[in-house]
Design brief:
3 helices; Alpha-Beta Plaits
Length: 105
């Protein structure tokens, strides 16, 4: 299984509470519409603070897929439709396809 992660910041003048509302009410339904059935799990991590410096980041979505081809196919459908109000309120600093490996403690 792989996941797609993105690092986001708010665009200048964006209200964090309003952007979170747009994520839940506008963006999540579009994710369901365009990324399912390939999407297996969807998590949005909202930044509450940072370690060692002031945080400029808003959040980090994690989208889980069986493989890279599934992720690419699903995202192609979403991107073809253009950005929604949530996507227009954030800057995507990086969008990465990663493989999660859990380390034993």
């Amino acid at each position: 299984m792989i996941k797609v992660v993105a690092i986001t910041t708010l665009k200048p003048g964006s209200d964090p509470a309003e952007v979170e509302r747009l994520w839940r009410e506008v963006h999540v339904p579009r994710v369901r519409q365009y990324l399912v059935p390939e999407l297996k799990r969807y998590v949005f991590d909202t930044v509450v603070s940072s370690i060692g410096e002031a945080s400029v980041y808003f959040g980090m979505p994690e989208l889980y897929f069986e493989d890279e081809e599934s992720a690419q196919r699903a995202f192609a459908r979403l991107m073809k439709d253009g950005p929604d109000a949530f996507q227009q309120s954030v800057n995507v600093i990086a969008r990465l396809i990663v493989e999660e490996r859990e380390m034993e403690l």
